[in-house]
Amino acid sequence: MSHRTSASNSAADAQMEREEQANATVHIVKARLDARVVRVVPDAPKVRYLPGQYGSLGLPSATLPGRWIKRPYSVSSSILEVATGTLIDPEAVSYYEFYVNRVDAGKSAEPLTPRLFTLNDGDRIFCGRKIVGYYTLHAVPPQRHLLFVSTTTGESANNAMVNQALRERPGVRVCQVLVAVNGWRSLYAEEHAALMRCEPRYRYVVLQVDAYAAAEARLGAWLQDARCAADELGFVLDPAQSHVFLCGDPALIGAPTKQGAWRYERSQHGLIRPLTAAGFSLRTRFQPGTVDYEAYW
Q1: How far is 59 from 160, CA to CA, in rounded Å?
Q2: Model confidence, pTM
Q3: Residue 183 sits in the same domain as residue 247
Q4: Which end of the chain is less crowded, N or C, counting CB atoms within 10 A of the terminal residue's CB?
């Protein structure tokens, strides 16, 4: 009897832990086989955060009882209500939005992202109360034009900052470039098209490429030809007047790799190389600059 009681108590404890950890409800906004936009409504009031930052999501481990699998995800934004053309105020909505793409398990023993594709409307999930990150507009002078470049769901953080810039920075021009490999198409394509119709300061450019070298070459053309940049991006790419945000695949970004305490090795490929050659500089937590980047898969 004692064993049955112990097992019963263990089951009750596990159920209680699941109920305590699962603190939000999932709503599926858009979905296809390789990508999803989900809105997560927390039980408690939302915490304040800066557009561009990331939070965490989690689900119970399928193999380790009592354990939760958690992972960081950038908070995204649909930017505007397509039907009305009204920009979304993130502080006026009850949800956090996330944009995820299906990825291979890789070396992870129990990856979280594939399991997000099994969720249905109304399912419960863990949503972290801490939202952090330095990939934000907070250090960018308010008069600078903004270029956002991303791959696949790296668009998430950029969408959130596009929304903020258009709401809070009158006169600033904004362009978002999606570098799409293998025919990738954004789940936010409808929102971008609607935004360009109602907001003349905004441009959305899709570069369909077979390899990232083509995107690097296109950026080089914008940097070298002011008229080409103005026609396609809406403004001239000048480090004195604009700021660049890069988010997504490290192979596209080409960030320097740390080799020691204060020594870095520059990449021979990626978008950072032509930007720094044109006078842009990398911003860090310790020094100002005109390029921010966040590299992740």
Answers
A1: 25
A2: 0.91
A3: yes
A4: N
The answer on 279 and 209 residing in a single domain is yes
Closest CA to 178 of 141, 151, 212: 151
Q: Is position 7 within any domain?
A: yes
Structure tokens that stand for 75 in this block: 């908070």
For the domain that residue 181 is a member of, what is the CATH number? 3.40.50.80
What pLDDT is recorded for position 240? 97
8 Å CB contact between 246 and 292: yes
Over the stretch 218-261, which tens digit does the pLDDT of each residue have? 999 999 999 999 999 999 999 999 999 999 999 999 988 776 66
Question: Per the domain annotation, does 213 fall within a domain?
Answer: yes
Phi and psi at residue 261, to the nearest 5°: -55, -45
Q: Are 24 and 127 in contact (CB under 8 A)?
A: yes
Domain that holds residue 107: 2-127
Classify strands 145-151 and 174-181 as parallel, antiparallel or unpaired: parallel
CB atoms within 10 A of CB 66: 12
Helix or strand holding residue 163 (H, E) = helix 155-168
CA distance 22 to 127: 7
Reference 205, options 168, 215, 213; nearest CA is 215
* Statement to judge: residues 156 and 98 lie in one domain: no
Beta strands at 174-181 and 202-209: parallel, antiparallel or unpaired: parallel
Residues 40-90 have pLDDT tens digits of 999 999 999 999 999 999 999 999 988 999 999 999 999 999 999 999 999
Place of tokens 């999803």: 36
Residue 211 is encoded by which pair of tokens? 């390899």
Strands of the chain, DSSP E: 24-32, 35-42, 54-60, 68-74, 80-81, 86-87, 96-101, 124-127, 145-151, 174-181, 202-209, 242-248, 257-258, 264-265, 291-295
